[in-house]
Amino acid sequence: MTQAPILEIRGVCKTFGPVKALSDVRFELRRGEVHALCGENGAGKSTLMNILAGVLQPSEGEILLDGERVAIASPAAAQRLGIGLVHQEIALCPDATVAENIFMAAINARRAPLMNFQKLYVEAQKVMDQLAPIPVRTKVADLSISNQQLVEIAKALTLDCKVLMLDEPTAALTESEAQRLFSIVRGLQQRGISVVYISHRMAEIFSLCDRVTVFRDGQYVATDRIADVSPDDVVRKMVGREITQLYPDKLAGAPGRALLSVKGLSDSDCFANVDLELRAGEILGIGGLIGAGRSEIAQTICGLRPATAGKVEIDGKPQRIRTYSDAVKAGLVYLSEDRKGSGVFLDMPISANISALDLNKVTSLGMLNRKAEDRQATELSKRLGVRMSGIGATVSTLSGGNQQKVAIAKQLSVDPRVILMDEPTRGIDVGAKVEIHRLLRQLAAKGVGIVVISSELPELIGLCDRVMVVHEGRIAGELAAGALGEEAIMRLASGVKAPSNSKQQAAHVA
Amino acid sequence: MSPREETPMHAELNAGSARRMNFARLASMREAGLIVIILALCIAMTFASPHFLTWGNLRAMMMSFSIEGIVVVGMTILLIVGGIDLSVGSVVCFSMVISGALFLAGIDPWTASLIGIAASALIGAIMGFFVTVIGLSHFITSLAAMVIVRGLCLIITKGTPLSLFSLPDSFKAIGQGSFHNIPYVILIFLVVVIVFDFLLRRATAFRKVFYTGSNQKAAQFSGIKTNQVKFWVTVLCSALAGFAGVIYMARFGAATPTFGAGMELNIIAAAVIGGASLNGGSGTIFGAILGMALLSVVTSSLILLDVSVYWQEMIKGCILLAAVSIDHFLHRKKS
């Protein structure tokens, strides 16, 4: 590793109007290394990636590739230079086949007038097979999110890149898919490709990467060899202050009375015969693989999807929940896993986002009471520590973590009895994550029922008092605080212990 | 564990500075910009033509966009919810034709008009059904409705205009009379605009329109019955078109089965120039009316300047393109 770095960045600044997204940052990527880039949301990682991918132009500074100064004027230029970026958000054409998507960039770079589809399919399959056996004639829209993510990565592989940047590639992947991705990344590394790896998950970074660079508030903080630092060191550098405890203390005593009780809940196709009980004071986790039916169960409890059988009781009283407004009236709210798609109104003000769940609260005589709305927004955003320019700012101006806080503020605005939270901290930086976890614990202590659905095992283990694991639409088992462990959850989630009877739907008719 | 101190990261970020809605500010920027352009055009025209700044001409301009302006109100609300209605021109005509035919059949004109408006609302309800229950897009549904309703107009009238000169004067006054030299048409228009502008800004029911148009999924996840919202807004848009149709009937004393063809484009253009987004979630009545006014001033100017009719359409199209491009550019600069 004594060669010149393949990629070097010196003194790069980027300003958006008055906002300085990057100031005088440097970064060095050595040949054949996997280099983690860490920082809270808003630290400038994505801005730097976009500069390297030619999407944005730096205001100042220089970029050296193989020791030579380069200007990356456009994404096409980045591709010619051999720099590939896999975006955090999936950017595929849903109506085109996997093969067409994989070679989208490559087709663009080629200069042949006609498409040779036969060859395209064969070559695409070759690339795809390195990652996962996804048939390349499938339409992208028909793939799961995690498979779409793999297609994104395959797309970058077709470009013969020297530098591959992965922006939170595992955000939508399950544990086993993530493991497969890691072995792929190691394979790329052996082929001499240098990888910039952006992630919030310390476990990944420490098992995969050689070095780590930390940014904070648009500034360079440090670069270390992974071998020389601990996850705590990295987190400390990211947040710039001590986070003494990643997860809040668990419930000390025994949980109280039952807040939410679900019996024999089934729907027409995703899950069957689900029993669930949530007691006051505890945080109940729901684990399982993506696609196991966790979100569907939560949404059905809240009336967002139709149930075919089952009873829901809140505080021991049976509830008739047909629509989501019934659920909200009964004090049951659902926080969506898809923050941007269905959690917040990006182009609306923070105040209007927070009041959306119960407009009656801020309405008198059919008219909105703006003062009441503003008061509520100010109160809740202060309580949740939303960092914003004001409650009139649109939610799109906030970082991911703060957007999520607004989404939670919306839930809290109705003083719910029970909140079902679907991936409450997905794609959120460490600092905000800790804040949200603490908030959940405080809410639970005040007697609000909290159910957390999460794909992140450390979160389930660190945060929850009890975890139920879903496997193929059935509750595969339940783990008490003492029995919580990654292995135990994964065993249940992958159905190792559970009897596998996947043809259970027919038996349940309402 | 003591909760960590919450300190805003940047000094300029304090809750007081950016008080009221950012996007309302953007919208008002757009409205202010339109006012400046309209005034500039008016001043230029005052020098260019002695006939421009006369009560007669201003009145004619106001008259010309007042009735269409009522349709623009409905269209803007529909655009905000994320829909669009290509059938408004046909529905305006449908309302005229129905009311006119009923009047000729011996029903008193006021009742006939109410039935005409109700029939228009029914067209909206049918479109709303296809959009919310069957799941078609507003664009396709209203495209079909545009053709079907136009067909109905031709069937009812057998293709010939209905002559309604026998309408009582008290009814014709809606379209032809005036109060202290201000035509009733303009007064009606102002009332509709003020009422709906207020409701859209303040009423809880209309806030749901913004939620639905901004992010339908998130609105559903907030317990808003988005299909209901879309249905009723579609009905409202058609009902307002029907209302406009009745006023046209009173004004012209006739019901022509081809009336209003192509009107929808003018109306959508006005709303879009005024800041309504075709993606839903944004728009104001005031802005849309200013858009309408701009188009009207331009038309009037071109006529006074003796520009050939053939050029007028093209110039209007270019203005639409320019307005939307400038806006797009400004928005990009902002974000």
Please characterize this protein's 3D structure:
The complex is a heterodimer of chains A (510) and B (335). Chain A has 510 residues and is α/β, with parallel strands linked by helices. Chain A folds into three domains: 7-239, Rossmann fold; 258-331 and 416-507, Rossmann fold (3-Layer(aba) Sandwich); 347-414, no CATH class. Chain A contains 18 helices and 22 strands. A six-stranded mixed sheet of chain A has the order 6-7-8-3-9-10, sandwiched between helices. The longest helix of chain A has 16 residues, at 175-190. Chain A is globular and about 70 Å long. Chain B is mainly alpha-helical and 335 residues long. Chain B has a domain at 55-261. Helices cover 73% and strands 2% of the residues of chain B. Chain B is built from 13 helices and four strands. Chain B has helices at residues 22-48, 55-80, 88-104, 109-134, 138-157, 169-176, 184-202, 204-214, 216-220, 226-252, 263-273, 285-304, 309-334; strands at residues 162-163, 178-179, 182-183, 254-255. In chain B, helix 3 packs parallel to helix 5. The two termini of chain B are 39 Å apart. The model of chain B is unreliable at 1-22 (pLDDT under 50). At the A-B interface, helix 11, helix 12, strand 18 and helix 16 of A face helix 1, helix 8 and helix 9 of B.
Structural Rg of chain B? 22 Å
Q: What fraction of residues of chain B sit in β-strands?
A: under 5%
Number of H/I helices of chain B: 13
CATH homologous group name of the largest domain in chain A: P-loop containing nucleotide triphosphate hydrolases
Reported by name, the CATH topology of the largest domain in chain A is: Rossmann fold
Which strand order spans the largest sheet of chain A, edge to edge or round the barrel?
6-7-8-3-9-10
What is the end-to-end distance of chain B? 39 Å
Strand content of chain A: 15-25%
Oligomer: heterodimer
Structural class of chain A: alpha/beta
CATH architecture of the largest domain in chain A: 3-Layer(aba) Sandwich
Average pLDDT score of chain B: 86
Q: What does the main sheet of chain A amount to?
A: 6 strands, mixed
Q: In total, how many domains does the architecture of chain A comprise?
A: 3
Per DSSP E runs of 2 or more residues, the count of β-strands of chain A stands at 22
- Name the helicity range of chain A: 25-40%
